[in-house]
Amino acid sequence: MLGQDEPAASFAAQRSGDDMSQSPEFNPSSFKVRPIGRASREPSGTLIHVHSDFTGALKDLDAFSHIHILYSSPKRVEPSGIPGVFTRRHGSRPNSLGLLTTGLKEMVPEQGGFHIRHNGLPDQADILDIKAYFPIEDRLKTATMPPESEIKQEEDTTCPTGRLPGREPGTGLGAIGEVRVTDGRAWASLQPRFSQGLEGLESFSHVRILFWFNRFDKAMYRRSTQCRPPYRDAPKTGIFSTRSPVRPNPIGMTIVKVKGVDPETGILDFSGIDAFDRTPILDILPYVPALDRPGEDEKIRVPQWLRHWPSWYTDHHATVRSADELRPAPIDLIGSPAPVVMASMENNDKWDSIQAAGDCPEEILIQGARQHNLKHIDVRIPKNKLTVITGVSGSGKSTLAFDTLYAEGQRRYMDSLSSGPMARPMAAPLVDRIDGLIPVVAVEQKTVSRNPRSTVGTITDMSDYLRLLFARASTLHCPGCGQGIVPADEQMILGRLLTLSPGTRFSISTPDGEAVKHHTITDPMPPGEQASILRDLEIAYRDGNGSLILEMGDQLITLSKHLYCPDCDRVFFDMTPSLFSFNHPEGMCSRCSGLGVILEVDEARLITDPERSLLDGASPWFGVLRNKKPTANWMKGEMFAMAQDMKIDLETPWQDLPQDFRQAVLHGTGDRIYTWVYQTGAQGRKGEIRRPASGIVNHIKRLFSDSKSSNRDHLLRYMGEQPCPHCQGDRLAPEGRLARLAGMRLPQVNRMSITDAGQWLDGLSGCLPEKQYGPIKDIIRELQVRVGYLAELGLDYLGLDRSAPTLSGGEGQRLRLAGLLGGRLSGLLYILDEPSMGLHPRDHASLLGILKSLRTLGNTVVVVEHDQTFMQAADLLIDMGPGAGQHGGRVVACGTPEQVMADPESVTGKYLALPRASASMNRPVPGQADQWIRINGADRHNLKAVDVSFPLGRMICVTGVSGSGKSSLVTQTLVPAIESTLKQPGVMPGGDFESIQGTEAVDNLVFVTQSPIGRTPRSNPGTYTGVFEPVRKCFASLPEAKKMNLKSRDFSVNTPGGRCEACKGIGQVKIDLHFMPDHWMVCDQCRGRRYQDKVLEITFQGHSIADILEMDIEACADLFRDMPGIMEKLSVLCKVGLGYLKLGQSAVTLSGGEAQRIKLARELSSPGTGRTLFVLDEPTTGLHARDIDKLMQVLGALVDAGNTVIIIEHHLDVIQQADWIIDMGPGGGEAGGRIIAQGPVADIREHPGSITAQYLGK
């Protein structure tokens, strides 16, 4: 049973739900293995022959006296005398792994291997891995086990064949269980069929766990033939020379201390492992000193660079939980450090001064461009100039800039690669010629990653530089005691000693107290005495294996030349950048996997109506229980059983129930057994359950961990994010999160705003010693450059750890731009897609300044834009049109902004020439609203306890500078509250506010974001809006289709049948370019048509199903004008300005604005109630002024029908047409979060504190 050091039965009861009954059956081929060598029995001993691919990894292996050999061995059925799931050698067990600890006899280079001292390996056994024997990892000083008399001697390990019956050796391994990690505790949970193998292990103090590094089961890691040990100046010594999981077979092994064993539940409780939850277990072996460590008479030899390591394994635990427990390094207790560098960097500017590149007469010449809807156009783009391409939506702007100019630049680069899969030619854009093309960098209009691991720091590359900064210059702190770990060489110690007061006496000795040398500080210190101190320090280090004792008065200071903690007798690896990455297995917190938060059951969501009784539905988990017959559902039955046992009246409201009963319902009662009698079947036969009560919280945890992602949605309603209890939200493992640089830890720096981080970086030059500052000043400079660009782009309010999913589309676009600008390159062609997206008019000047600085550096800048400020600042303005789709694709006007405005054919020129107030239709001002939604005390993110009112039945525009709190107020406060009300009518929604009223007046919510409509290339406007389904039915109803027995599903690209199976209905196949973005090429089988030939033979009015997908939506609407079911959906898409899109255009090619309007069109196609709340986030993204007028007409019609429309927007034409404006600010980040003004447009225009008002008046 479990050990007595904790409530044993209680732990078993709590974890009994974590058995493996829900896991897949044991599969011996789950993890593929690759033999790296073979054992051969020879007269002179056993030879380990290593395959030629891996012989380089044997370099310097003979520096070790002993090794571990992990091999694939034959199965045998006779049991061994030693207990354990995996008996020591060849007993009955699921996997055929063998582990041998042996002495290394001699290297045999001519045979590609080495001889070992032990003859216990089966002949021809497959070698899976080789690990050098590290005493600090493998040698236990004290290990308890049953008396030797109780252990039978093992069978002879020799085997005549060395082959596995029934399958080839080395093909695969299977998991017998998992390492589970919860609430800071780790244990092994075995599948039921293997749980009895734990019997007898309670007599052993330690066991060895063999596990599969599933996070490193990737080709890029497994193709490694040698690893790089993370030790300073360490040789590459053996594939298994370190804990690094980068190796051909990612099998790990570690020793853990047994805390308890329970074979009935299959639980092995232990300590001493730092593993991720759900790590697959391959083997469990009891630690037997006679087998696991060399004999006392055997001398253990390790390389010189490991001699300072402790000689025994020690259980290490991270006990330091906060930065308050960190202590200075021993060297910092001696004197004072060297003087700091007060001089600043050579150039105090945030980036190099920009030198004018001068005018260049060269041009990029495009002739005969006919990609997509381009009509064989010719364009000349001057180099070293700012060119803006504009035009109505769908006129061909992006086709010219990205699908022609950028695509050709990318193709030429790929063609320059000479070998490998990347040499496969890319399809050229349809153009006669492009001359003068230079290297191209594109910043496309795509939404930022929705992965919570992506942050402001990772998007801008600042996280990479910060990780490098901390890896090179920070001070490591021991997770066990908090002491600073700084290697101190002789010169460093002498320098500190010379700063002590004259007359200070000290002595130098080895750690065991030998070779004591006494010295006294004098002023001045004679050179001979300094040399004597240096010599004594060198001798003490040499005799003490890299450690010495410095005694000053009653103070004993242990110093080391290595990363070593004397208090914990622990050696650390050299710090690498991956140690500071929450996205790398080496650096991420093992509890939260680097997310900083964990999902925990929220008790407030379990009991939503405490004034009711449990019988009447106080808990949505139980539901209404009144008049329900008892069933075998123990999760509900345990509550009745506990109530019966504790004599509780379940008619009592939850809030009036005894505290101990409420606690028992939520968290269980440990190991106490309850009896539940129920009726089953129509005949009312009785059944009985006897088991402990786990409680709702533990039931949900078990179900959530065992469920697949598709089955977790119903459990998520009871869960919420909580800070990780291990890292307290720092996201890093102990070594990374406790390292400090200039008094700051990396998680603290990550929580800073861009502004604060810049100030901290500026201060490093004045607080670090020259020796420490010199190697990192270039890193600091790169960081300061990025800080400067982010400030210029109006993003200095963002925190470095701000998660990408919480960013607006405009913030994400500018962050990617800042990451590119940080390179400060010249001679490039930059192509940007609407960089003003999400920017308040106040910030346009700063962004324009950045683009002009790129131009001044000698770059050519091409911008696809609709904003008037950018168009008027262009050196060259190209207006595409005159219409969209098939009606566009021509250059309507080209020249300076003044020339375009004077061109009578240019639609853009007309809008540029008009005053802004008359450029849009003004809606009539409505009267006072009858109903309102009012929020009081909203404090989400940077909101400052704001009170705000939203009039219902009106068009509301939420404005303000970037970062002022618009999204926090609308999408993260109002929207969740409305969603909660719709899910649970009559229940007051919770959130980051004091109160909310009026939500009951809304009966439907349509939240239209800029997230993609699909993640696969098969998703398209037709499938998303549902219009493609009646189209498929139309084709299936044709006489030719019926003759061929083709059904509607045969015309689908998402299901097998009629689609091309070579490309799975995509029309393209993906080419993996390894470390570069994947490339798509036209499918050779269907030639991009997506379907099989038999399906393409069916035509409707001369068009095949593939032709329909390639048609513009506007053309499709004309084709199906006599079919109302199809025509209605297509006409709505045209109304929102998307008639130019192809019906089958891939979702991954759509901009955020296009995706948003497709979602809006789908909602508009559904019947409305007149009480719907529409929320749109910057719907004008990618829209020309003419298309904005169309969109506003659609939104105005929604309001006229009684609905409410809330728009987060910066576009002045939209703001002027709103019925109600909520202006936020005054600044971004902490400088924002307040309501500056709210009311009709006329009131906002006159408000003196509103920045938006300043631009509305222009």
The number of distinct helices, counting runs of at least 4 residues, comes to 37
CATH superfamily of the largest domain: YaeB-like
Q: In total, how many beta strands?
A: 48
Q: Output the CATH class name of the largest domain.
A: Mainly Beta
Q: For the report, how would you describe the main beta sheet? A: 6 strands, antiparallel, barrel
Distance between the termini: 80 Å
Helix content: 25-40%
> On the 0-100 scale, what is the average pLDDT?
82
Shape descriptor: globular
Strand content: 15-25%
- As laid out across the biggest beta sheet, the strand order is 1-2-5-4-3-6
Provide structural commentary:
There is one protein chain. The chain contains 37 helices and 48 strands. A hairpin with a 7-residue loop joins β13 (363-369) and β14 (377-382). The protein is globular, with a radius of gyration of 36 Å. It has six domains: 31-304, Elongation Factor Tu (Ef-tu), domain 3 (Beta Barrel); 366-448 and 808-913, 3-Layer(aba) Sandwich (Rossmann fold), CATH 3.40.50.300; 456-469 and 743-805, ABC transporter ATPase like fold (Up-down Bundle); 597-723, Orthogonal Bundle (Helicase, Ruva Protein, domain 3), CATH 1.10.8.280; 916-1012 and 1151-1257, Rossmann fold (3-Layer(aba) Sandwich); 1016-1149, ABC transporter ATPase  like domain (ABC transporter ATPase like fold, Up-down Bundle), CATH 1.20.1580.10. It is 25% helix and 20% strand. The protein is α+β, with helices and mostly antiparallel strands. The model is unreliable at 1-10, 16-23, 75-91, 149-170, 340-361, 418-423 and 917-921 (pLDDT under 50). The longest helix is centred in the first third of the chain and has 19 residues, at 397-415.
